[in-house]
Design brief:
The structure holds 2 protein chains of 2 kinds.
Chain A: E1 4-6, E2 11-14, E3 19-25, E4 32-38, E5 45-51, E6 54-58, E7 61-66, E8 71-76, E9 85-92, E10 100-101, E11 105-110
Chain B: E1 4-7, E2 10-13, E3 19-25, E4 31-37, E5 43-50, E6 56-57, E7 68-72, E8 75-80, E9 89-96, E10 106-110
Parallel strand pairs in B: 2-10
Antiparallel strand pairs in B: 1-3, 3-8, 4-5, 4-9, 5-6, 7-8, 9-10
The chains are: A mainly beta, B mainly beta.
């Protein structure tokens, strides 16, 4: 079993839809949680960074962490074609620790 | 955040040759991390490089194949040795305390 599981998709939605992306993990020791966006042929770009449980909002993006369920989510409101990319979740145990990534979800937002 | 740059951005190499990838950070950092992203896959940590000591390799990665140098607090190199087509990947670096940020990556194709 992988430490971090993420549905690879692909996921296709119409422009303006709310997108929900999810990851589950097996080790309760993870403390730091991240979401990355990766456009084709580019490096990953940090979108959201949270510590422990709770919600964090940044513009159209909301990250949720539920440590009791070992589940994290990224919500994208009013999705745009420019949001079409692969979204990767990642987590680590401590500061300076290695990042463990999910498989990535390929998202396509259709105009 | 820190600015992380990599050279080269891409290369096409022949089987059996070696390629050295450079990673430069605009701040002094303690640890630098090298990741690999194979086609259609997520990121996997290759090794962690501390200045003045041997790099620490993850399971499945060995120093003879991926030698790493860390000559100072802002710079590291990763060499991919005796390449085969299976080494075709994007290679990315990051650095503590900015380890959630990545360089733009080096896209390597081995023919």
């Amino acid at each position: 079993q992988k430490e971090v599981e993420q549905d690879p998709g692909p996921l296709s939605v119409p422009e303006g839809a709310i997108v929900s992306l999810n990851c589950t993990y097996s080790n309760s020791a993870f403390q730091y949680f991240m979401w990355y966006r990766q456009y084709s042929r580019k490096g990953p770009e940090l979108l959201m960074y949270t510590y422990s449980s709770g919600n964090k909002e940044d513009g159209r993006f909301t990250a949720q962490v539920d440590k009791s369920s070992k589940y994290i989510s990224l919500f994208i409101r009013d999705s745009q074609p420019s949001d079409s990319a692969t979204y990767l979740c990642a987590m680590r145990y401590n500061q300076g620790g290695k990042l463990i990534f999910g498989q990535g979800t390929e998202l396509s937002v259709k105009p | 955040s820190a600015v992380i740059s990599q050279k080269p951005s891409r290369d096409i190499c022949q089987r059996g040759t070696s390629l050295t990838i450079q990673c430069q950070v605009d701040s002094q950092v303690t640890m630098m991390f090298w990741y690999r992203q194979q086609p259609g896959q997520s990121l996997t940590l290759i090794a962690t490089a501390n200045q003045g000591s041997e790099a620490t390799y993850e399971s499945g990665f060995v120093i003879d194949k991926f030698p790493i140098s860390r000559p100072n607090l802002t710079f590291s190199t990763l060499t991919v040795s005796n390449m085969s087509p299976e080494d075709s990947s994007i290679y990315l670096c990051s650095a503590f305390p900015y380890e959630q940020y990545f360089g733009p990556g080096t896209r390597l194709t081995v023919t």
